[in-house]
Design goal:
- This protein has two domains: 2-216, Rossmann fold (3-Layer(aba) Sandwich); 218-286.
- Helices cover 51% and strands 8% of the residues.
- It has nine helices and five strands, in the order βαβαβαβαβααααα.
- It has helices at 9-18, 41-57, 82-98, 113-127, 154-163, 193-216, 218-244, 256-267, 270-284; strands at 2-3, 22-27, 60-61, 103-108, 133-138.
- It has a five-stranded parallel sheet with strand order 1-3-2-4-5, sandwiched between helices.
- The longest helix has 27 residues, at 218-244.
Length: 286
């Protein structure tokens, strides 16, 4: 692994000439994660996951990007607009491609609908401008069998316990009182470092394998681009429904069909991924 911020030009040239031309870009934000987790959890976790992926893939690790789209409706949260941040994502991907990286893998610790849509749509746009192949990943994309994603719940708390246990304060609120802002399983009594390490290890190994498959197979790159375009169509449809009515009653993105498409992509089964996305689209139009 090579750390981009600490590398000299000759280090990059040597790596690109002799090692896999994969760059890993961690992405986080500043966002409320209730009273038991820090505001920078998404970035802290993404940076550690990015490092683990880069080590497993023998890749180059880019500095973390803290600027992301949207956020929960709680204090101390950055809520940057999609129209501002999506072009930044696109330009990052393009310029990393121009440096000579054949695969750019973005790993996001913050994965709300608009953030994920911005990453994926920017990837499609970037691939029209550069030879690099861009593979955006959310924290849960490759591990839906272990962790379907949450916000300040059991999964995120466990990941941070495995990485930075001193930053997890599960006793911050009395057990008979709720943790405001948690979306997903209650972390108290359930989060643990062993589970977090299991998730992190699986993400690193599976994401590394994805990167190497994309380097090796033009067919795989073409099929993934098709499925990525369909996933953007799904997310745009969900966003329209949310914007046209009550967000609380709008359909979620993380349904069984969406998670099935994530699992199929991880396995390289693009036909099954496409079928799951078409099921998701049909469900949205009912």
């Amino acid at each position: 692994m090579l750390v981009l911020a600490e590398a000299f030009p000759r280090d990059i040239d040597r790596h690109l000439a002799t090692r896999p031309s994969i760059l890993v870009q961690p992405m986080g934000t500043i966002e409320w994660h209730s009273h038991h987790l820090p505001l920078g959890l998404d970035g802290i976790v993404a940076e550690q996951l990015g490092r683990a992926i880069a080590e497993a893939a023998d890749a180059v690790l880019a500095p973390i990007s803290w600027w992301a789209v949207g956020g929960v409706p709680f204090p101390h949260t950055l809520k940057l607009p999609l129209g501002l941040i999506e072009p930044v994502f696109e330009e990052l991907y393009v310029q990393f491609g121009e440096m000579g990286f054949a695969v750019v893998m973005a790993i996001a610790g913050h994965f709300g609908l608009e953030q994920t849509l911005g990453m994926k749509r920017a990837a499609l746009a970037a691939m029209r401008r550069t030879q690099a192949f861009v593979r955006p990943l959310t924290e849960y994309d490759t591990v839906t069998d272990l962790y379907p994603g949450d916000h300040a719940g059991r999964g995120e708390a466990s990941l941070l316990q495995a990485m930075r246990p001193e930053l997890v304060r599960l006793d911050a609120v009395p057990p008979d009182q709720p943790l405001p802002g948690v979306l997903g399983p209650e972390p108290r009594g359930a989060a643990n470092a062993a589970y977090g390490q299991q998730i992190a290890t699986a993400i690193a190994g599976r994401a590394s394998a994805l990167g190497h498959r994309l380097l090796a197979s033009a067919h795989e790159r073409a099929r993934y681009r098709d499925v990525l375009g369909l996933s953007v169509e799904v997310m745009e449809a969900v966003l329209r429904l949310r914007q046209s009515g009550d967000k609380a009653t709008a359909p979620p993105i993380g349904t069984a069909a969406w998670l099935a498409h994530c699992a199929a992509l991880t396995e390289g089964d693009y036909d099954r991924a496409e079928a799951a996305l078409r099921t998701k689209l049909a469900d949205l139009h009912r």
